[in-house]
Amino acid sequence: MYKKKWIFLLFICLQVFVSGPIQAGNGYHSRALPFQIWQGDTAFRGNGKGVSDRAAALSFGVNVPDALGMAFTGVPLVVTGLAAKSVDDRFRSLRNDFMPEFRCQVDDYLQYLPAAVMVGMKACGVESRSSWSRMLVSDAFSAALMGGIVFAVKSTMQVERPDGSNRHSFPSGHTATAFMTATMLNKEYGYKSPWVGIGAYSVATATGLMRIANNKHWLSDVLAGAGIGIITTEIGYLLADLIFKEKGINHAHEINYFSKEPFSAKPFRPSFLGVYLGLASMPGRYRLPDGRALKFLPGSSAGIEGAYFFNPYIGFGGSFGLSSLPVEGIALKKDNLSLLSVYSGVHFSYPVMDRLLLGGNISMGYLHSDALRGEEGFLTKRKGFAFSPALSLTFRAKEHLGVKLFARYELLPDIMPEGDPDTFHQLTFGAAASILFPASKNPKKQKVSAKRRDIQHQSAIPE
C-alpha cells in the first residue's frame, strides 16, 4: 500500500520535471503548457523600449504564458501536499527519532526575511523590476490572496497539528508567507543575479523545514503552503500588470540570466548541492538469535548531498542522511530503527539532453544504527562501514536549479549483537532539489553574449 502511495507522489513530481518550455531553434514556442517551467522573470522582455505592439495587444501588456508557467510550478506542490497526507507519519518519525526536543522560534521571523531584503534594497536605491507603487500593489494583491486562501483552507480542513495544540495545521501559513516573500524578491531583483532567487528560496525552504522540526506542521502542510505562496504571488503580480500595463516597469536592466539558448551551448559542470527526501525500506526478514523473525516496514529518509565535478562527466562528492524504519515482529521499547549515514565517493553524469542528465555515484562511508531494545535487549547500537551505489535522473528546471529522481542501494553492517553475521540491505527511492553550479570561464563575456543573443532574438520577432 505504501509503495503505491509513494509511486503516486513521485509521478506527481515527475509531471513538474518533464514539462519544461519547448525549444524551437534558438527560441521557444510562446504557447503555455501545463506545468511549464518558467525561465526567469521575463514578463516584460523587449528591445529595451518595451514589448512589441503585437505582444501588448495580445496580452494587454502582460506575457500571460510566462506568468502562468511559473504559477503552475506551484500547483504540483499543492497536489503533492494533499497526496502526502497519507504518509505524514513516516516523515514525522524522522523528527521524533533525531530531534524530539527541538524548539526554535527563528522561523517566526525568517518567513519575512526576503521581503525585508526586497524593501531594503529598494529603499537604498537599487533599481528593481517595478516602481514603488507598482511593487506595493503587486505585493498587496499577493498577500491578500495568500492570507485569504490559507485562512479559508485552515478553517475548512481542520487538520490537527502534530503537537496537538490546535486544528489549524493545513496548510502552513509560515511556509506560504516565506515562499510568497521569496517569489516577490526573485521577481523584483532576480534579473540581477541567479543567486537572488537561490538565496530567497533557500530561506523559504529553511522556514518550512523548521516548522516540521518544531513539531508545528506535517510535511504535507509545508508542501501545500509552499505551492500556495508561489501561486498567489504570481497571480498578484499578474493582476498588477493588468492594471499598470507599461507604467512603472523597468526595461533598462532586462538581462536574461536564464538565457533561452540551449543549455548545452554553455560551459557546464554539474556540480551541485541539494536536499533529498525518500522512501526507505529493508526488504526481507531477519532472524534473531532466539529464532524469532524481525521485519522492517517502509520508512522515510532525508539528507543533504553535494558533489564537485572536474568536468561534465566525473566528480567527487558526499552525503549526510537520516533514516527511520518502523519495526514489526516483536514487542519493542522503541518501535523505529534510526540510521545515520555519512558517505563520500565518485559521482558520474552524462547529458542525455539539454536539460536531462543521467547520473549516479559509487560511495563508501560510515553508518550508525540506534538501539532497539525489547524486554531482553537484542539489538544494540552498532556502527561500521557501508557501501552505496546510486542512479539518478536530473532535470534542469532552470540554469541553476535541478530536480532529481533517484534510486539508492545501501549494503549495511550487521546490527545484530550476537549470532552469525547477517547482511542488511536498504533501498531508497526519492526526489531531490539541488542548486547547480555551472562553470563559466569568463562570466562578463558570457553576460554580454547573452544580452546580444536576447537582442538578436527580439529583433527577429515580427511586430
Q: Portion of residues in helices? A: 25-40%
Number of strands: 12
Main beta-sheet strand count, sense and barrel state: 8 strands, antiparallel, barrel
Radius of gyration: 24 Å
Mean pLDDT: 77
Outline the low-pLDDT stretches. 1-66, 255-260, 441-446, 459-463
The strands making up the biggest β-sheet line up spatially as: 3-6-7-8-9-10-11-12
Q: Pairing-aware structural class of the strands and helices?
A: alpha+beta
Form type: globular
Number of domains: 2
Our measurement of the CA-to-CA distance between the termini, rounded to an integer number of angstroms, reads: 56 Å
Helix and strand element order: HEEHHHHHHHHHEEEEEEEEEEH
Beta-strand proportion:
25-35%
Q: What is the tally of helical segments?
A: 11
Describe the structure.
- Helices cover 38% and strands 26% of the residues.
- The chain is α+β, with helices and mostly antiparallel strands.
- The chain folds into 2 domains: 2-261, no CATH class; 268-436, Porin (Beta Barrel).
- The strands form 2 sheets. The protein has an 8-stranded antiparallel barrel with strand order 3-6-7-8-9-10-11-12. Strands 1-2 form a two-stranded antiparallel ribbon.
- β8 and β9 form a beta hairpin.
- α6 runs parallel beside α8.
- The model is unreliable at 1-66, 255-260, 441-446 and 459-463 (pLDDT under 50).
